[in-house]
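Recall that a protein's primary structure is simply its ordered list of amino acids. Everything else, from secondary elements to tertiary packing, is in principle encoded there. The following example makes that idea concrete.
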Amino acid sequence: MVYLERSQPAPACLAVEKAKANGDYKCGDVLERLSNDFRDKCYLCEYKGPTTINVEHFVPHEGDKALKFDWNNLFLACDHCNKTKRAGYKGILNCTDKNDRVDADLEYRFEPFPSPRIEIRLVVDNDRTRTTRDLLLAVYNGTTKLKCYGSRYFGGSVPHTGRGNRGTSRQPDSAHGQRILAL
C-alpha cells in the first residue's frame, strides 16, 4: 500500500446518480478516473492490471447514500482484496490521505523461499496501523485454506518489489518512504 493522490473534484455524475432511487456509483468517468488515480493497481495488494476490478467503498456504506456516492470513499480494488476486506476491517490507513503515512508506518518483509510469505512490522504502533497490517497479511498470506492457496498469486506483487524481483531488499524509498526487506 502506497500513497496515491486522488484527483479532484468528484465526477459530476456521482451527484446525479445519488439523487436517483437506484443510482449507480460506477457512472460516467468514475472507472477511468479511479484507474488513473490508482495507476491501474489494486490499492491494497498493488497488483498491476487485475483481471477482476471492483469499486471498493473504503468505509463500508451499509446503505448510507452519502458514503455510497462519496468520491473520496471509492477505491479501485481487485476481487481478492475486496472479498478479503469486506466490512470486516474498519479504520485502516487511507492511501489517499498524506497524513496517514502508509509508506512510512509499515515495514514489509518478504520471504520468497521455500514459499512466498509476507511479514509486516509496525513502525508506528496504533489501532489503525495494526488493523491495516492485519488486512494486508490476510490479503498476502490468506486466512483460510482456499484463501491461502489463492493468495500465492500475490507473492509477486509485494509492494514496490514488482513481479520477478522476489527477495529484493530495500530501505525507505525516496519517493514514498516505504520499507521492504527480504528475510
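Residues 13-85 form one domain. The mean pLDDT is 82.
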